[in-house]
Fold this sequence. Notes:
Elements: E1 2-4, E2 7-9, E3 20-22, E4 26-28, E5 41-42, E6 50-51, E7 59-64, E8 68-70, E9 76-77, E10 86-93, E11 99-106, E12 115-116, E13 128-129, E14 132-133, E15 155-156
Amino acid sequence: TYQYRLLIGDGPNINNPVCRIASKPVVIQINDIPKIGAIDSLFPCTGTTANLIASGGGQYLWNGPNGFTANIANPSIPNIDFIQAGMYEVRVTSDSGCINSDTTRMLVRPAVNLAVSADQAICEGNSVQLLASGGDTYNWEPIQGLNNPLISNPVAAPDTNTNYTV
Length: 166
């Protein structure tokens, strides 16, 4: 906040309070533009919900591909498909009326089509190979009895009946 006054007087007598006049103060208030906290990128899979996130203002206006608009800070887009990929812009207005904008890039990835081998029975002391497909990385649980829980086809040799999940 800044205050200014205009002082008018005769040049040689400007320092004499009787020979000058001052205006009422003029107040200038400088407000910050909103500091937007929008996420940089989104990578949802098809069929899931994408959550756009922004903060830092009082009013929000989102625009994106295929005519997407929303006027809340954190809109959700359900059932994502490839046509919704692209740049999303949010325009944020502060309570004092200052405006700032930011963008978020959405890259839609294909959903995982997981296939897992059927239930199997083995005799005590034997092993069986488990099979999963459809992903790039795998994490089998529990890890007890597995030769490698981070591959698509670990060998399982459990001591007791075990339900493995991937």
